Amino acid sequence: MKRWLVIGFALLGLVFAAPTASADGPRPRACFGGNLVLAAEETAENVALFGCHLEMKNGARVLRDLVSFGGNVTLAEGARIGGDVAVFGGHLRSAGRIDGDVAVFGGNVTLESTAMLDGDLAIFGGVLNQKEGAVVRGRVERSTETSWNSPLAMFIPFRNGMDWFGAFVGWIVRGLVYTLALGALGALILVFLPTQLNQVASVAEKSALPSIGVGCLAWLVVPPLIILFAITCLGIPLSLVLGIVFVAAMVLGWVAISLIVGDRLLDALKVKNLVPLLAMFVGLIALWLVTSLPVLGTLIWLFLTALALGAVALTRFGTRAYPQPLPTSTIPTVMPTAPPPASDDGVNI
After folding, report:
1. How far is Cα 303 from Cα 317, in angstroms, rounded to an integer?
2. Which residue among 85, 91, 140, 263 is least enclosed by CB atoms within 10 Å?
3. Over the stretch 209-229, which tens digit does the pLDDT of each residue have?
4. What is the spatial distance between Cα 64 and Cα 204, in angstroms, rounded to a whole number?
5. Closest alpha carbon to 121 in 226, 179, 134, 74
6. CA pair distance 90, 103, nearest whole angstrom
7. pLDDT (tens digit, 9 = 90+) per residue, 295-312?
8. Is the pTM of this model over 0.85?
9. Phi and psi dihedrals of 280, rounded to 5?
10. How far, in Å, are 79, 101, 248, 281 from residue 169 at the CA level?
11. Closest CA to 243 of 230, 226, 259
12. In degrees rounded to 5, what are phi and psi of residue 296?
């Protein structure tokens, strides 16, 4: 399989995010978060998904390529993709037809009985579930089948009885996808809200104890309120708003902490930090590795999210300083009064 081709167009998926819309014919489609549905008889030129799930109805069509970062892709019977498909950190379920190659990194592939794939299929860190009747005309490559061809395989214990290598690859891919997705949000925050981000980072670093206290209080109060509002019909809109605000605060705070961690790591390594974006990505990768540790990683994640939420709450999303500067009181200046002139009365000559 021409894996370099699949990976190449996947990395160029960012180009689809800001396409030049043509006056006539199908347009490229991009989705950031949420869900994207291609209805029956709807046609798109290319599709790029960033943390977004795609569902293609019967008769829907993508003329060229599809790339997904952190989202699931579902094709109904009668749906068709005319080019290649690359899915990073998500699952692919197809009952339709794909004319090109398919590569799935860190996810599972399910081919229903009506599915047809004209090209090759490569799965890295996932499982293939091919129903009876599904057709794959190209080659099928799976990481669990090809990973032990490496010369290092002989030094890996229990390699024949455990499929942990595929799970490890899936963990790596998922972590990288989530880190890249969070990095994309962080890049937008750096561009449009640099002052607010720096304010949150400054408070998280200089006022860590108050931030942790407020963050722990937020963890104890906000999630139960969201659940409480969600179980009442009238409170559902308030629950959605509160959930969005809570997630936005966590993202802003996490990016701010990653900026701090990245700066410290680059300083320790004596690497010149040319742009804040570099420090942010270094910090995000470091936090991902640390929080992935068994048991201890969960505790570190809770600690850091409390710090992040508290810093955002204390600064009102970075819109004010903490602690508030004391108002300067102006003391009126009293001018010395001149002594009264001496009187001539009662003066003896």
Report:
1. 19
2. 140
3. 999 999 999 999 998 888 888
4. 46
5. 134
6. 11
7. 888 899 999 999 999 999
8. no
9. -65, -45
10. 30, 21, 29, 21
11. 226
12. -60, -35
Give the separation between CA 4 and CA 215, rounded to whole angstroms.
Answer: 45
Say which residues have a Cβ less than 8 Å from residue 165's Cβ, sequence separation at least 6. 143, 144, 147, 148, 156, 159
Give me 284's structure tokens: 């995000």
Q: Is the peptide bond before 323 cis (omega within 30 degrees of 0)?
A: yes
Are 173 and 106 in contact by the 8 Å Cβ rule? The answer is yes
Q: Which of 72, 73, 78 minimizes the C-alpha distance to 57?
A: 78
What is the residue whose two structure tokens read 């180009």? 15
Buried/exposed code over 131-151 (b: 16+ C-beta within 10 A; e: otherwise): eeebebeeebbbbbeebeeee
| Secondary structure (3-state) at 68 | strand
Using an 8 Å Cβ cutoff, are 140 and 249 in contact? no
Distances (CA, A) of 289 to 154, 172, 230, 284: 27, 10, 34, 9
Outline where DSSP puts E strands in 2-72. 29-38, 43-44, 47-56, 61-62, 66-69
Amino acid at 258: S
Contact in structure between 281 and 187 (CB atoms under 8 Å): no
